[in-house]
Amino acid sequence: MRAKILFLAQLLPYPPICGGTIRSFNILKRLCANHDVTLLAFSRCPEDVENARYLRRYCVDAKTVPMARSGLLNARWAAQSLLGRSSFIIGRDHVSEMREEVNRTLAAEAFDLIYVDHLQMFQYVKGLEGQPRLLDEHNLEWRIIQRIATVKPHGPHKWFAALEWRKLRKYELAACAECDAVATVTEHDKSSLEAENPRLRNVACVPIGVDPAEFRAVDPEPESTTILSVATMSWPPNVDSIQHFCSDIYPLVKERVPEARLVIAGKRPPASIQRLEADPSISVPGFVNDIHEVARNSAVFIVPLRSGSGMRVKILNAMAMGLPVVSTSVGCEGIEVTHGKNALLADTAEEFARSVAQLLEDREKRFEIGAAGRKFVVENYSWEVIYPRLDWLVDSLIDRSRSQAAV
Hints:
The protein is of the alpha/beta class. It has helices at 19-34, 47-55, 71-83, 88-91, 96-108, 141-151, 156-178, 187-196, 236-256, 271-274, 291-296, 313-320, 349-361, 363-380, 383-406; strands at 4-9, 36-43, 61-66, 113-117, 133-137, 181-184, 203-205, 226-230, 261-265, 282-286, 300-303, 325-327, 344-345.
């Protein structure tokens, strides 16, 4: 029996061009196939008006509320956070128009479930009674800031992050306890939440999936010595990872493979990343329309992350295309790869450089790792494997809600 679901999204789920929107878009489509879904999301650019119209082919309705971010607004929320006990990450996504729209929507219609997509949207249904809420934890947000505080050099950013992650952890754990169910993308995140609050009994793992037909296997250039990174470059952990690779790892790779080249693809690269093109062996093309063309000309896919949480969908996509992946343990967190069989894991600059150089030098090894990676992803992380977990979680909440209403 179809149910009515309100889907609250921090990021408009279309187009699906980053890990967050890829997960949200595929989950939204699945929910819409089985239920009547109303989408309410933030819009961040003029194109989002048309993007919302596109989503109406799946949803009963798709509405947006504008969100403006700027350095001035961030500074305001940072100051308020420093003066009080509130989290900066949560405060900067507080928009009064969104609260009003949520209240209007809930007053106009009764929903069987509210799907809270990203922790930042919980504030709009905090304290709500009578309607089940499912919180989708794309990441453990406080863990990201904690890791940033660990790897940042001494200075104001490190100090602020050290204050922020503790405030955010308190808020995040309270949100998880208040919601009827919590979905994490990895078993590691699930275990972390339960370790922080042993009384949590409402957490289930629903991983990110990949469409093997969309990310088809490529026929790589056998003589390539190109190292590929694909990441949304507006996300601070991605920027840190590339700066770390270029300063501490890439020179070691070049000592062994002088002809090595590096392509840093991804939306909105900041000036600090664009300046890396001063090295003629480094290219920063920005957003790439067809990732298969870039993948075909690449030999190794790298994820040198030092901070972050959740699951890196870019790793699933790269493996689905048959690219051999070299990642840190943090980068590959939540993806049950086997080191040396379907990916290479390395956590020091020397180990990472050695692994990249090995694949650049050994064509058979990189083809072997790439083929094993695609097989692993198809069998374990295709959306058709993941969807039953989502269906069970959503249906159990709806059934429980209807049973309680019938009493």
